[in-house]
Amino acid sequence: MNSISLLEKEKNIWQKKLTGLAPDESEKPLLEIEPGDNIERLRLKIELLQDRIRRVDNDLKKLNKRRAELRSDLQIYEELLSFIDDLQQDIDPEQEYFDQERSDQLKDDVRNSKIKISGIDERLRQLSGEKSELENKIRQFKDYLTQKMKDK
């Protein structure tokens, strides 16, 4: 029971951290093409969208790096757990050489790592979707800008 509450606390902590990586909605005004936009204003809006894409890319890189670290840790935990399980089968329970607490801790570490990776995967999906939206918006602006320049 205590392990479950610890996992819930850990999950909540990581969710808050991952949520903290999301860009603040107040800093993301909706950029739309407006009838009064001149060529310079359109270029400025395109630059702002490109800046946002760079920030999203940086967040994606950080999350992918963290995900790789967690996957590496997870692999080590799973290998240690497998080794301990194999060792436990070879040890006579009467000898009391086996450390059940360490085994339980490794199982918790495996679960925690999987929860963290899952949270990161979700955030990566969100950021990838956001990046796609921004790229589409840039294409719209560039197409409109091209058309506006032709009309001049």
Mean of residue pLDDT values: 83
Helix content bin: over 70%
Coarse shape: rod-shaped
Tally of contiguous helical segments: 3
Give me the secondary-structure category: mainly alpha
- Strand portion, in percent? under 5%
Number of strands: 0
Q: Give me the Rg, rounded.
A: 25 Å
Question: Could you list the spans in which at least 5 consecutive residues all have pLDDT below 50?
Answer: none
Question: How many angstroms separate the termini?
Answer: 71 Å
Q: What does this protein structure show overall?
A:
With 152 residues, the chain is mostly helical. The protein contains 3 helices and no strands. 81% of the residues lie in helices and 0% in strands. α1 (2-20) packs parallel to α3 (100-151).
Question: Which features does this protein show?
Answer:
single chain; 152 residues
